[in-house]
Amino acid sequence: MMNDEEKIVTDAQVRNKTLLSMLFLLVFFAGAVTGWKWLHKQPKDEGAPRPLRNALIANELIFENIFSNNHTAKTFSKKSAVPRVRVNGDAGMSEDFDPSSWKLEVIRNVNDTLRLSLDEIKALPKTEIIFDFKCIEGWSQVTHWGGVRFSDFVKKYGLDEQAKLQFTGLVTPDMEYYVGIDTKSMMHPQTLLCYEMNGAPLPMNQGYPLRLIIPVKYGVKHIKRIGSLFFSSQRPKDYWYERGYDYYCGL
C-alpha cells in the first residue's frame, strides 16, 4: 500500500524535467559564448580586455589591503622537496650569457649604481626556505631554495630610503624579461635573492647565478637570472602584465 507522502513520477514528468534541464543548459551555453565574444570585442587595456583588466585591478586592491608580513607561506621539511624542479619559462635566459662577467646592478639613484658580485651577496647571512611554488599555469611543487633575505640585503647596502618607494623593478641581463613588484612584498621575510636550489648552486636553467624567490607571489614574479634592480614610485614594466595578466599576482 502506498504512503500518502509517496508520489508516482510519470514518464511524462521525467521527460518534461529532462527537456527543461536541456533547455537550461543550451541557454547557459549560448550566454557563455555570447559573453565570451562580447568580452573579446572590448577595447584592450595593457593586454587584457578592459572589463577583465578592471576585475584584475579590483583583485589587486583587495590583496594589497590584506597583505601583512605576518602572513607567511606554509613551509615544509627537506624530505618533502622534489629532487627535480620544474622550470617555469625561459624568457630572459639568453644562451650567450657570460656568468664570469655577471654582477648585480643595484640602481640607487641617477648616476649611482652599485655593482655586486655573487661572493659579496653570499657573504650575507644565508636563509633557506622550502615551500609550495605555485605557477599560474596551474601546477605547483614543494621546492627547496637558499639565499639572502631581500630585507637583509636592503639593510646591508643602505637602501632603506629607496625601499620606501612603492615598487621594485627587476630585469634580466638581456633585458628580455622584467617584473614589477610592490616593495612591501619584496620586503616580506620570506623573499630571497636566491643562489641555491636543493643545497647546490642554481642550475643555468633555474636562473644562475641569482634569481628571486618570493613565496607570496605566483611563479611569474620569481624572475630568474637577475641583472639589475631598482626602486620606483611608479609601476615598473612587467612582462606578463603587458600580456594581459594581473600585475600584483599575489597568493
Write a brief structural summary.
The chain is an alpha+beta fold.
Kindly describe this structure.
This protein is α+β, with helices and mostly antiparallel strands and 251 residues long. The chain has two domains: 13-42; 73-82 and 102-243, Oxidoreductase, molybdopterin-binding domain (Sulfite Oxidase, Chain A, domain 2, Alpha-Beta Complex), CATH 3.90.420.10. It is built from five helices and twelve strands. The chain has helices spanning 11-41, 50-66, 118-122, 150-156, 183-186, and strands at 44-45, 48-49, 104-109, 112-116, 127-134, 140-149, 167-171, 178-182, 192-197, 200-201, 211-213, 228-232. The strands form three sheets. It has a five-stranded mixed beta sheet with strand order 4-3-12-7-8. Strands 5, 6, 9, 10 and 11 form a five-stranded antiparallel beta sheet that branches. A two-stranded antiparallel ribbon has the order 1-2. A hairpin with a 2-residue loop joins β1 and β2 (48-49). The chain is elongated. The protein starts with 10 loop residues before the first helix and ends in a 19-residue tail after the last strand.
